[in-house]
Write a structure and sequence with these properties.
The structure is a single chain. The protein is an alpha/beta fold. The protein contains 12 helices and 10 strands. Helix 8 runs parallel beside helix 9. The protein is globular, with a radius of gyration of 18 Å. The chain binds adenosine-5'-diphosphate (ADP) and magnesium ion.
């Protein structure tokens, strides 16, 4: 696949919430085969930038381009179909569904917390699709949780639930992978597993963006760091350079 097909770019992407600019003319191009670390203090607008790219919120102004094509008007589901995959800071797994079903359900356009809670979701229709079941089983195997395929999320540790959320994001085999704080609350073996999966996806020339506060992880895994503050990109550089920058460190840790 050519670089063009993967390229993800924002141009003057802007969003304000109640008069506060949480994305302020953001211009950034994410590189294919790169792991980019999106860092910055709490409230900087990191998750908002993910939401704008994945289509979960609409921008006030500015554009998102995927493979050179403007995708602003597309819904979150359409963007997912085009290959933009993401996880959420709080996982958002369906607690009443088994792990395998949590993965399969993500492939359906009527998939939402609301449709599920109202009983509007025709789960059997999705489940019938054996193809999704195979893909889901393979992904659970990859994250080391195939033995738990029929368990519900609450039977797993928090870190294992993060792995399920990552596996779900990989269901589409999308070229853009955005992970929102994958390491929060995760330790030990799960930490290494998440790292391993990200690096495998990198080898497959995916464009990977990781929001994370765990600086050791960022240093180990990211090819570049993007420092965001007050909805603006303050610096794009090697992680080492960003971490050695006195001003950025002061902003990051406050005061
Ligand atoms: N849906 C929303 N409505 C109103 N304000 C929001 C919404 N989402 C985020 N914000 C605000 O936007 C700012 C940036 O939030 P966020 O993108 O979650 O930051 P980060 O992920 O960097 O911690 C915060 O001040 C937050 O309170
Ligand atoms: Mg956030």
């Amino acid at each position: 696949m050519s670089e063009i097909e993967h390229s993800l770019e924002t141009v003057n992407l802007t969003k304000n919430f109640g008069g506060k600019m949480v994305a302020n003319h953001i211009n950034i191009k994410f590189k294919q085969g790169f792991v980019s670390g999106l860092i910055g203090p709490n409230g900087a607008g990191k998750t908002t930038l993910f939401n704008l790219i994945s289509g979960n919120i609409k921008s006030d102004y500015g554009d998102v381009y995927l493979g050179g094509k403007k995708i602003n008007k597309m819904s979150d589901f359409q963007r997912a179909r085009l290959g933009i995959a993401r996880t959420w800071q709080m996982n958002r797994l369906f607690n009443s569904l088994s792990l395998i079903d949590n993965l399969i359900i993500s492939q359906r356009s009527d998939y939402s917390d609301k449709s599920l809670s109202l009983g509007l979701f025709d789960f059997n229709r999705a489940k019938k699709d054996a193809l999704y079941e195979d893909i889901a089983a393979n992904l659970l195997k990859r994250v080391g949780l195939l033995d738990y395929r029929n368990s519900v999320p609450a039977e797993l540790s928090y870190g294992q639930q993060k792995l399920v959320a990552i596996a779900r994001a990989l269901m589409n085999d999308g070229n853009i992978i955005m992970l929102d704080e994958p390491m929060a609350g995760v330790e030990g073996r799960t930490h290494n597993k998440i790292k391993e999966i990200i690096l495998e996806e990198k080898t497959r020339k995916k464009t990977i963006i990781v929001i994370e506060h765990n600086m050791r992880f960022i240093r180990e895994i990211c090819d570049e760091g993007i420092f965001l503050v007050n909805g603006q990109i303050k610096a794009v550089d090697s992680v080492a350079s960003l971490m050695n920058d006195v001003e950025l460190t002061r902003i990051y840790f406050g005061g």
